[in-house]
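Justification of resources, computational component.

The compute hours requested in this renewal are based largely on the per-chain cost of generating structure records like the one below. Each record pairs the submitted sequence with a full structure-token output. That output is archived, and it is also reused by downstream analysis tasks.
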Amino acid sequence: MSMFLDTAKIQVKAGNGGDGMVAFRREKYVPNGGPWGGDGGRGGNVVFVVDEGLRTLMDFRYNRHFKAQSGEKGMTKGMHGRGAEDLIVRVPQGTTVRDAETGKVLTDLVENGQEFIVARGGRGGRGNIRFATPKNPAPEISENGEPGQERELLLELKVLADVGLVGFPSVGKSTLLSVITAAKPKIGAYHFTTIVPNLGMVRTHSGESFAVADLPGLIEGASQGVGLGTQFLRHIERTRVILHVIDMSASEGRDPYEDYLAINKELESYNLRLMERPQIIVANKMDMPDSAENLKVFKEKLSANYDEFAELPQIFPISSLTKQGLATLLDATAELLDKTPEFLLYDESEMEEEAYYGFDEEAPAFEISRDDDATWVLSGDKLEKLFNMTNFDRDEAVMKFARQLRGMGVDEALRARGAKDGDLVRIGKFEFEFVD
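The structure output for this chain reads:
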């Protein structure tokens, strides 16, 4: 089994806030001491941190659930509960994080040490010391801690490389990588020898350096899942320059120019924006007998079928086996990299807006539906959060929640929908009778 993993689906749960406390000051020489219950502590966030020492998402293959600690409960003497520490989850450079439900990109983590909070912990509930008023100097009210955010995430690793090698299987991509870098990719005389991306660093004679990724071979129909399909095409999205390696000897009976068109078609089908990246055509295996003639024909076909106003891509004849032409190719690649800007992977429509963890003023405070058993069902983020933070063990807290529902217009809305005295109303698993 390959130890390279570039996609994962995980679940994260931030810590709940600690519950507030109901307590009263009872000291011998302090009459009418009043409330003394402290607030609960904040729940821990789940934080992704980029670790340059990681290369794959293998750590997420078997560990798919990440839960931060909850905050401590409030204590007597007005003492706050301790806030929980954040849960740090380390991810490799180049990890894209998406919300599994909406498909929106939350963040793109590319810098070593970069941090992003993927789930925020709930705030601590207030103790009864917070609810004291002149009218009610000794309240028996406290709040439960706010629930921590919970979400399912899709992680996608796109390797960080300046240059990507693409081409049909067995055109010599792995051999080329092995001679221009210190990488040791598997090399064999059969298709799909490379089944995972390989990375290597190149240093030219002039001192320039850049990262090169050798991607598993594409074949016609890859964008529809043929061969290895688009499984590894995502890794070319971060590259700024594409080296299109072509077997100019036509050793497998294919026309080099048709190979060139077929691979470009697959790149375009996968992501049209890949065609924005400048390409250098690498005419490999020039040490073979028919290569020179095939290269001449290739250039004629390329010129004849190219837009007269477009700039023809550079073509560099090389032989990975004899190391012919490599220095010139690498210098030209470094020069092209210098004048090629970074390509944005995601536009604003694909990115989720900065998360807001309070109440959305424009969102409806609650929704009413009816279950099959004729029970009225109340739902909605604001209402459910108030419900979860209510301590139903205290009568005063229950009455406060009832007043909050009335203030939100729940009673009037139920009446308008036809609710009658004695009808059952459900919030989550909690049921109560509607009183008209």
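Residues 188-194, 225-229 have pLDDT under 50 and may be disordered. The longest strand covers residues 150-157.
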